[in-house]
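Need residues for this backbone.
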């Protein structure tokens, strides 16, 4: 009993230690002074207003939205195709292929950023929309595949076989049978890809140019140059949006991993 109380108290302390620095941003975003002093001496909404009226912040925001949406589509499509291909391989080869696609989760982000920077520099992709989507897809694809593979492994293969015996070709079987069944996993993976792309800062710092700069890069630049509490206001909005999308992804993922009743 005492051990359980001790572990519970320790867990609470760890959670507070991890969450507290994030929650401190919230009151700072409502300060009435151009500083990061905590606690604030007064309250104001001017920094939220500054975000919605500053063309620089809005340009970076819409750039992030555009890149994240395209990344979700590209990573989602590629993740479904790769997952289907992996399940068709022999077990040992499938395990090797799956581990290969998971490498971006294991390799440090700075290593991936330096490698992509060298490639993009020689191919002229630095600061391009295509380059951003390609780079963000690299780090988002493993998250998509994790959810899609989990959904695919829960699908009863006999349903596809039944569709084939009724005259459906492979595309029709995938479109009308397999895809609806794995849709929760695909949606969950796409949402995670969106959040990953929207929050990505290391890759974006290496491949950005003054002509295309995402919101995380804009936040980083603002913090290193001055003490503008607009950064805190933006961070609060991004945090709330990310939490909402992550909750939706978790909800969709749980629906996609429901056990299949095999009779």
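Answer:
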């Amino acid at each position: 009993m005492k051990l359980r109380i001790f572990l519970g108290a320790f867990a609470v302390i760890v959670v507070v230690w991890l969450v507290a620095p994030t929650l401190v941003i919230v009151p700072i975003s409502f300060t009435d002074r151009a500083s990061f002093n905590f606690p604030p001496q007064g309250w104001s909404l001017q920094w939220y207003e500054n975000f919605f009226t500053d063309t620089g912040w809005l340009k970076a925001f819409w750039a992030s939205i555009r890149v994240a949406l395209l990344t979700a589509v590209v990573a989602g499509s590629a993740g479904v195709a790769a997952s289907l291909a992996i399940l068709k391989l022999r077990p040992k080869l499938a395990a090797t292929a799956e581990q290969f696609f998971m490498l971006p989760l294991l390799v440090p982000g700075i290593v991936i950023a330096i490698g992509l920077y060298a490639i993009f520099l020689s191919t002229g992709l630095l600061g391009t929309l295509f380059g951003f989507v390609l780079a963000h897809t690299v780090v988002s694809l493993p998250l998509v595949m994790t959810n899609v593979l989990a959904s695919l492994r829960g699908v009863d293969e006999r349903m596809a076989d039944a569709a084939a015996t009724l005259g459906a070709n492979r595309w029709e079987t995938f479109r009308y049978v397999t895809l609806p069944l794995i849709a929760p996993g695909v949606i969950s993976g796409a949402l995670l890809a969106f959040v990953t792309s929207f929050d990505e800062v290391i890759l974006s710092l290496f491949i950005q140019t003054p002509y295309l700069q995402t919101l995380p890069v804009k936040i980083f630049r603002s913090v290193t140059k001055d003490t503008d509490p607009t950064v805190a206001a933006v961070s609060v909005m991004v945090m709330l949006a990310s939490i909402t999308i992550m909750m939706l992804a978790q909800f969709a993922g749980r629906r996609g991993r429901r056990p299949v009743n095999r009779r």
